[in-house]
């Protein structure tokens, strides 16, 4: 069950953080006051996202007992989410180089888990 909680919390937290920053980049004027106003309004969502990420890492560590692997997996999730945000917000289609990079990350995670 810790696997499910850890993976779900990590994915939702990382997804929420990336949505908030992608939205800011696309729709919020870079003026200091406007950015500050957005950050203040979005603060509760950032807090929720950070709590989800923290608990995702905690449950992932409980399940796997290897913090390095949990953190590597979360970074891999974040790369995939970043590619998704690029497509959703900026209509950037991933190129073969992006897919090759994701493949290399997956291979690295698999190698780090091998004994």
Automatic annotation (TrEMBL):
<keyword id="KW-1133">Transmembrane helix</keyword>
<keyword id="KW-0472">Membrane</keyword>
<feature type="transmembrane region" description="Helical">
    <location>
        <begin position="69"/>
        <end position="90"/>
    </location>
</feature>
<protein>
    <submittedName>
        <fullName>Drug/metabolite transporter (DMT)-like permease</fullName>
    </submittedName>
</protein>
<keyword id="KW-0812">Transmembrane</keyword>
<feature type="transmembrane region" description="Helical">
    <location>
        <begin position="38"/>
        <end position="57"/>
    </location>
</feature>
<dbReference type="InterPro" id="IPR037185">
    <property type="entry name" value="EmrE-like"/>
</dbReference>
<dbReference type="GO" id="GO:0016020">
    <property type="term" value="C:membrane"/>
</dbReference>
<feature type="domain" description="EamA">
    <location>
        <begin position="7"/>
        <end position="111"/>
    </location>
</feature>
<feature type="transmembrane region" description="Helical">
    <location>
        <begin position="96"/>
        <end position="114"/>
    </location>
</feature>
<comment type="similarity">
    <text>Belongs to the EamA transporter family.</text>
</comment>
<dbReference type="Pfam" id="PF00892">
    <property type="entry name" value="EamA"/>
</dbReference>
<dbReference type="InterPro" id="IPR000620">
    <property type="entry name" value="EamA_dom"/>
</dbReference>
